[in-house]
Amino acid sequence: MASPITERSVLELLNQARVEKGLAPLEANNKLFQVASDKADDMLKNNYFAHTSPKGITPWVWFDKEGYNYKFAGENLAINFSSAEDQQKAWMESETHRKNILDTNYQEVGLAVKKGFINGKLATVTVQEFGTQTAYAGNGAGKSVIAKNSLPEVQMNLLQNFNGKLLDAGEKLSGSIMGAQNKTKFMEYLGDGSATVILVIILLNSLILLWIILDSFFGAKKKELDISNPSFNLYTISREEYLEFLKRLSISSEDSKTIYLEQMKLRR
Prior knowledge:
Blueprint: H1 7-20, E1 27-28, H2 30-46, H3 59-65, E2 70-79, H4 84-93, H5 95-101, E3 108-118, E4 121-133, H6 156-163, H7 169-172, E5 176-179, E6 186-189, H8 194-223, H9 239-248, H10 253-267
Helix pairs in contact: 2-3, 9-10
């Protein structure tokens, strides 16, 4: 039988998948449940379904907000599935989502299942937050067997009408995201390659900015003629530098141009 999507059913299917692969089940962590709840609330409030919000808020902001000091962290998202089994099946058929679910680096998990409106449409969002604390000690403070189901009361006729027309599979899952060890960096596994494109753009902009700064610095240095230098040679400087040199000798602009033209004749 198909199970409704609740935090309990999502956790049970998650750990069932791990046990079937010979892995230890993940412990429910109160802070991670709050992290998941914060992320779900933010998506519903700001009309988006993605790991990074339109304001540029990454998943790791919510980890820090709730004081979860992680060594490893990751996030899975899903939206608008009709049953917990269908949702779990879709996650397991996605290489990156399955990697989070079966990752041996994770010790704990937090979940949130919430209903609300995204862009004016009723939506059910599921958030999985995976983690291992920097000083992990199993069964310690901050753990709970299962968190209370956070689903609000919704009229059943609305749910039936809504679930009758589901989104395509490609629109139901986000790209999976994994945190790197010790918060030094993170990797995004996105099917459309947008993370790579963004990284390339950032690198190109950085190189262009560096070139502008260096060009401005050395360009300014070049214009400062050192007349006292014994190696200073009028024949090796540019026209602009030559006119600047004559100007510094208090020679008028017209006379400067005349002198410059005469020097050009001599060079020939």
